[in-house]
């Protein structure tokens, strides 16, 4: 109970002191987390370029290309939507043509390695899938709709392959819940263990806090915001990344073409962690072998729309999600320029934390003084908490009424002009305030011929969860990723 109200109180404090700031962060976070949307949220000015655009193709990761315009007089930031669509199409066509002429063997044999783990015989579940089965044809089973491949059923409670010793990567101990009741019971146990472990810890609402304690709690609360706006993506900071099951324990000494990213979940935003690196097939072989051992499903990226997830043994498959809905289809690529610090510096000037600390300190002491005027014998905790928050709201409303009304029309964040720094100045400010460097990012689609080694999966299309590694056809590039939220 104490923990619940403590969390509510912290959220209330944050919204009270930094409401406009938090609103901007949610927008910023949604842009950072949704990888598929990131390509489509660039500012587009509808400017028509003259004549056909001449481009070069840069291979960002094996098999994935970015089109680079040769004509330096063309401002790439001012491309029309039509131009960008054409460039994306050219990138895909170039990658597909290269795949056809490369002579790479198909992955038929490796793909079939895990066929026994698929439950293609679950006729009832297959017929329940409505995404591709119409009412008139669903009784025909799973070879319908003119599909080249049959639908497949996979489940999070499937056992992993488990062959071979795990040395280079973190252990993957997945929770194999066969029913919702198993999951609910496990969640309840975890909550009880957490509350027992943290009993007596945290802030007591009925005791005044010092300014130092308030400042520490605010900094802790807003730390995820910093990690969202300035993600960990510098290879030198791999040790700062959270420990993720299946990811390498250490940065391989041979790793090249590294693209890593880490940001936590916050409010409605997703957590996303990624680590991609290249090497020779011989160097990557032990990592791929461990990925195979840790995986429950091995599937070509091109086939994930054919694989449907049955979360529990009693799940209704009528509206089941496919792996296509749960697995990110693009990865973030790291550029060589750092994320601008202008907004960070301006926000510190507009919302100094010491001012917020003073306001919260004054508010809490005023609330406690008013609250303690009333003493009720044998008052239970629920009634006491309710009376505290009613007192707090009454005082907050009275204080807000005395403040000047904010001029939202003149203070819209999109109209703000932030300081602009040179790259050298920006790096200096990042080291001063963040104690690390954070780089700008782009995204690129994972080629369809990559093989996915899926360690764990679940959730739903709007709250997906997936933990996996993607390997290039030539086994010279591997991408570990974890998406949750």
Task: Give a description of the structure.
The protein has 485 residues and is α+β, with helices and mostly antiparallel strands. The chain has 13 helices and 12 strands. The chain has a 6-stranded antiparallel beta sheet with strand order 4-5-12-11-10-6. A two-stranded antiparallel sheet has the order 1-2. The longest helix is centred in the first third of the chain and has 32 residues, at 2-33. The protein starts with a helix and ends with a strand.
Strand content: 15-25%
Question: Could you tell me the number of beta strands?
Answer: 12
Number of helices: 13
- Average the pLDDT over all residues and give the rounded result: 75
What is the terminal separation in angstroms? Answer: 25 Å
Shape: globular
Rg on CA atoms, Å: 26 Å
The helix fraction, in percent, is 25-40%
Structural class: alpha+beta
The major sheet is characterized as:
6 strands, antiparallel
Low-confidence stretches: 1-51, 100-120, 132-148
Strand order of the largest sheet: 4-5-12-11-10-6
Order of helices and strands: HHEEHHHEHHEEHEEHEHHHHEEEE
Task: List the main descriptive attributes of the protein structure presented here.
single chain; 485 residues; alpha+beta; two-stranded antiparallel ribbon; disordered N terminus
Can you lay out the helices and strands and say which pair or pack?
Elements: H1 2-33, H2 35-38, E1 55-61, E2 64-69, H3 81-102, H4 108-111, H5 123-128, E3 152-154, H6 180-197, H7 211-229, E4 256-263, E5 271-278, H8 281-294, E6 297-300, E7 307-309, H9 323-326, E8 330-338, H10 342-350, H11 353-371, H12 381-402, H13 423-433, E9 439-445, E10 451-460, E11 463-471, E12 477-484
Parallel strand pairs: 3-7
Antiparallel strand pairs: 1-2, 4-5, 5-12, 6-10, 8-9, 10-11, 11-12
Helix pairs in contact: 1-7, 7-11, 11-12
């Amino acid at each position: 109970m104490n923990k619940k109200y403590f969390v509510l109180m912290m959220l209330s404090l944050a919204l009270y002191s930094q409401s406009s700031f938090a609103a901007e962060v949610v927008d910023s976070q949604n842009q950072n987390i949704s990888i598929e949307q990131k390509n489509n949220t660039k500012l587009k000015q509808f400017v028509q370029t003259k004549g056909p655009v001449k481009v070069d193709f840069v291979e960002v990761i094996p098999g994935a290309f970015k089109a680079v315009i040769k004509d330096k007089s063309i401002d790439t930031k001012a491309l029309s939507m039509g131009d960008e669509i054409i460039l994306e199409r050219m990138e895909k066509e170039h990658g597909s043509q290269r795949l056809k002429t490369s002579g790479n063997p198909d992955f038929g044999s490796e793909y079939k390695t895990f066929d026994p783990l698929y439950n293609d015989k679950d006729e009832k579940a297959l017929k329940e899938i409505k995404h591709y089965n119409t009412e008139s044809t669903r009784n025909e089973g799973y070879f319908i709709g003119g599909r080249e491949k049959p639908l497949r059923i996979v489940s999070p409670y499937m056992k992993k392959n488990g062959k071979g010793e795990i040395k280079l990567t973190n252990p993957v101990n997945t929770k194999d819940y066969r029913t919702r009741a198993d999951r609910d019971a496990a969640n309840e146990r975890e909550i009880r263990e957490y509350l027992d472990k943290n009993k007596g810890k945290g802030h007591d609402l009925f005791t005044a806090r010092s300014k130092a304690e308030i400042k520490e709690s605010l900094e802790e609360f807003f730390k995820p915001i910093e990690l969202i706006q300035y993600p960990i993506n510098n290879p030198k900071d791999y040790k700062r990344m959270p420990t993720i099951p299946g990811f390498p324990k250490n940065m391989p000494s041979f790793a090249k073409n590294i693209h890593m990213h880490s940001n936590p979940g916050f409010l409605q935003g997703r957590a996303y962690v990624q680590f991609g690196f290249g090497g020779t097939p011989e160097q990557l072989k032990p990592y791929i072998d461990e990925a195979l051992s840790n995986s429950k499903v091995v599937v070509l990226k091109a086939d994930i729309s054919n694989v449907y997830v049955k979360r529990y043994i009693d799940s209704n498959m009528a509206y089941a999600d496919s792996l296509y809905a749960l697995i990110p289809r693009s990865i973030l690529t790291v550029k060589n320029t750092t994320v601008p610090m202008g907004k960070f510096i301006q926000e510190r000037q507009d919302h100094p934390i010491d001012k917020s600390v003073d306001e919260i300190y004054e508010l809490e002491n005023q609330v406690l003084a008013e609250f303690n005027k009333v003493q009720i014998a044998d008052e239970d905790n629920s009634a006491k908490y309710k009376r505290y928050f009613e007192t707090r709201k009454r005082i907050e409303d009275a204080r807000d009424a005395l403040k000047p009304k904010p001029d939202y029309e003149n203070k819209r964040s999109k109209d703000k002009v932030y300081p602009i720094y040179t790259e050298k100045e920006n790096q200096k400010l990042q080291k001063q305030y963040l104690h690390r460097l954070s780089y700008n990012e782009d995204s690129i689609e994972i080629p369809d011929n990559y093989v996915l080694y899926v360690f764990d999966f679940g959730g739903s299309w709007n709250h997906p969860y997936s933990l996996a590694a993607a390997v290039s056809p030539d086994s010279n590039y591997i991408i570990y990723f974890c998406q949750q939220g």
